[in-house]
Design goal:
By secondary structure, the chain is an alpha+beta fold. The protein folds into 4 domains: 356 residues, no CATH class; 124 residues, Immunoglobulin-like, CATH 2.60.40.1250; 96 residues, Immunoglobulin-like, CATH 2.60.40; 107 residues, Glutaredoxin, CATH 3.40.30.10. α1 runs antiparallel to α10 and α4 runs antiparallel to α16.
Length: 733
């Protein structure tokens, strides 16, 4: 959100000067801009002074209104618990002489994490003081596979997302049926962020009684999912030895076992230096791990080998000779798949090239081409401006990609276009789109930075850079052919390999303008300067105006409350009025802006009565039920085909597919005839469950379309451009 506001502000002040000069190829009556003073020089100075004063006031007013809108959009809520704990049982009626499972679900708040049984350098696991009824015993909790996290040079073994600890509850055989066996305890754990740690405590309890041991199907499914996240025990012991300042481990693992992102967690302390690099190699059916030693522990040791994607194996180590190091094992961090990298980079470049056809990007590209036309074929100026435009597009794409990778590394469940999931970012873009539209329509002009050849060239480069930045930022809601898979590859590549893919998107976006700047044959095909340029500029206001309307609709959908929508509308209304007032000063008509004010006050007055429609509309959208993992599991159990699609209100490709294919009458009739179950995942305001589901299928953006055939183990990923025929064929219609 901060990046959106900063970029929008810089673009607003740095790029319109170039657009304001689009009609420079046509005669311009200076008296329309400066009025008719007694002398031209004194009149020009007078108006420039008024412009400076107004622009200072305008900037301050807009910043104040935007800050006010940010405060109004910030939800007022009580501080949630750092990690919420809840105890649940697989069966509430345990059979005497039998065992049931209990789970302690731990839900960290945003930015917080919990710890594995050995928390590493700076943490500790959970402990419980049980108050168990007579005849009831509780086993130690079993932990799911953690993730390594290095903060300030210290290694932490953590869970940054919701997780569950599992234990077994055994009831004595002589307990009479119907006996109350309610289990309570006092749980203690540590909750941390990257800056602070807080010890936490809670009373946990679950109602149990002696009975028939029945388990509800939904509860069994949930516990099975939690069990799947637990590490599996190896049936053979490993070996470990210390040699000087090095410690080596041998883990018995068949050669065919895949290692995606291995890491060895030691439950036994004082053996290894946790932050030290771990080297993995394979010697036949042994995995050899080498790292730096720390501490003086000896004898047997317990550990957990993380295989990747939440899978792991518990290992019991006995002291003994470790086989020699073998063939190095490549990990995601040390040896990325270069074929995947080059394929993704090529897809990002081509996908970025296609984005130039989108309605929010095309007018920007067209106007920059017009600036080349205005230059009269100056090859040097064209090249400078094209390079500046490319630099702006590439740098913005890199910054957005870097922010995405940083947020994901910090534990946030986000994907591409994450900034459009926040109302404040959408509001900033809406104000920018309105300002661009009004500028294109000629409602106001920004002053030129000209004043000599050197400054003119500087203005061209600056205008090109910020326009490229705007084009890249405006293109983020769009996803087209090749782009979804290319951005999805950044999920599995290290940061140094993922960032060039984001840069490739910006480079592809800039390719047409770069070609015009460096290929004289293309530049010579541009039409000659003339009065048509002013008309074309006004026509370009149409797609930008439609973009502003779409952003306004998206903001309305996201807020969805009559009381909250008022302040954003006030900010937008004041923006339009201030810009219109500025334009009236330039034209010498100080009263024209009153017409804007009257109309916009009427719009704001309606906000309180229509805001709730957006929320109601959100619950009625889509041609299917709401997606969730449980809903998907139930749908697949029905034995019918299942169609799952993930969408967002700000995704142009998604809405085009929904209108042109999914919601077509013929497609819905075919789905109904074949009993196709449709599930819709709405990612408009972000959803960690949907983000993880996208990642599981190699994507971090929408749209994503999945088709589950009856009995199929895995879904088929459908193309990002759907047709009615494709969907009816899938349904067998």
């Amino acid at each position: 959100m901060i990046f959106a506001a900063v970029v929008s502000g810089f673009i607003f002040t740095g790029s319109f000067s170039d657009w304001g000069d689009v009609s420079a190829g046509c005669p311009l009556d200076e008296s329309r801009l400066y009025g008719k003073p007694g002398t031209q020089d004194s009149g020009r100075r007078s108006v420039e002074l008024r412009k400076d004063v107004f622009m200072t006031g305008l900037g301050r007013a807009l910043l104040a209104l935007l800050a006010l809108a940010m405060l109004s959009l910030a939800p007022a809520r009580a501080e949630p618990p750092h990690i919420a704990a809840k105890l649940v049982a697989e069966s509430a009626t345990v059979s005497p002489g039998a065992t049931t499972a209990i789970a302690l679900t731990m839900t960290p708040g945003k930015g917080w994490h919990g710890y594995w049984t050995n928390g590493g350098d700076a943490g500790f696991g959970l402990s419980v003081e049980w108050n168990a009824p007579e005849g009831v015993s509780v086993s130690p909790f079993r932990y799911p596979v953690p993730e390594p996290l290095i903060l300030f040079g210290m290694m932490n073994h953590v869970y940054e997302h919701p997780y569950a600890l599992l234990a077994d509850v055994t009831v004595a055989r002589d307990i009479a049926p119907g006996t109350d066996l309610t289990l309570t305890g006092i749980a203690n754990w540590l909750a941390c962020t990257d800056k602070v740690c807080v010890p936490e405590k809670a009373v946990i309890s679950v109602a149990l009684k002696a009975g028939d041991g029945q388990i509800a199907p939904a509860t069994r499914t949930q516990f099975d999912a939690w069990r799947a996240r637990l590490p599996q025990p190896l049936d053979r012991a490993g070996k470990w030895e210390r040699k000087g300042d090095r410690v080596r481990f041998a883990i018995p693992l068949p050669a065919g076992t895949a290692l995606e992102a291995p890491h060895l967690f030691l439950e036994t302390q004082n053996i290894v230096d946790y932050p030290a690099v771990q080297g993995f190699s394979r010697n036949g059916d042994w995995i050899i791990v080498e790292t730096r030693a720390k501490g003086d522990a000896a004898g047997r040791a317990e550990g957990l080998l993380k295989l990747g994607d939440g899978r792991g194996l518990t290992v019991h180590f006995e002291p003994g000779a470790v086989p020699a190091k073998g063939e190095p094992v490549a990990t995601a961090a040390s040896a990325p798949d270069m074929r995947l990298f080059w394929t993704a980079l090529g897809g990002a470049i081509l996908g970025g090239l296609i984005l130039n056809l989108m309605p929010c990007v095309f007018p920007i590209l067209s106007l920059k081409a017009l600036s080349l036309t205005r230059s009269g074929g100056d090859a040097r100026a064209a090249k400078v401006e094209a390079l500046a435009y490319t630099g702006g597009a590439v740098l913005t794409a890199l910054l957005l990609g870097g922010a995405l990778l940083a947020l994901r590394a910090a534990g946030e469940e986000v994907g591409w276009a994450f900034q459009l999931q926040h109302p404040v970012s959408v509001l900033a873009l809406l104000i920018l789109a309105i300002a661009i539209t009004m500028n294109l329509l000629g409602s106001y002009e920004l002053p030129s930075f000209g004043g000599g050849q050197a400054l003119t060239e500087k203005s061209g480069a600056a205008g090109g850079f910020w326009t490229g930045a705007l084009a890249a930022f405006a293109a983020t809601p769009c996803s087209g052919p090749l782009l979804g898979a290319a951005l999805g590859a950044t999920l599995v590549l290290p940061a140094w390999a993922a960032l060039p893919i984001f840069g490739g998107l910006g480079f592809g976006l800039a390719l047409p303008f770069l070609a015009i700047g460096f290929v004289p044959a293309l530049r010579n095909r541009l039409p000659k300067p003339g009065p048509w340029m002013a008309k074309f500029r006004k026509w370009m206001a149409l797609p930008m105006g439609l973009t502003a309307l779409a952003l306004g609709w998206l903001l309305w959908r996201q807020i969805g409350s009559g009381s909250l929508i008022v302040w954003p509308l006030v900010v937008v209304a004041m923006t339009v009025v201030l810009l219109a007032h500025y334009g009236s000063i330039q034209r010498g008509d100080r009263r024209a802006w009153l017409l804007y004010a009257a109309g916009l006050l009427f719009v704001v007055s309606l906000a309180g009565t229509v805001g709730d429609v957006a929320q109601a509309e959100r619950h009625t959208d889509g041609a299917g039920a709401t997606f969730s993992p449980a809903a998907l599991a139930n749908a697949r159990k029905s034995g019918k085909p299942v169609f799952v699609y993930f969408t967002a209100d700000w995704c142009l490709s998604c809405k085009a597919n929904e209108a042109g294919a999914i919601n077509r009458e013929a497609v819905q009739a075919a789905f109904a005839a074949k009993g196709v179950v449709t599930l819709v995942g709405d990612w408009t305001t972000g959803d960690p469950v949907i983000t993880r589901t996208l990642a599981e299928h190699g994507r971090n953006s929408v749209p994503l379309y999945l088709w589950y055939a009856p009995g199929a183990a895995e879904p088929e990923i459908l193309p990002q451009i759907l047709t009615p025929g494709l969907l009816t064929d899938k349904a067998g219609g």
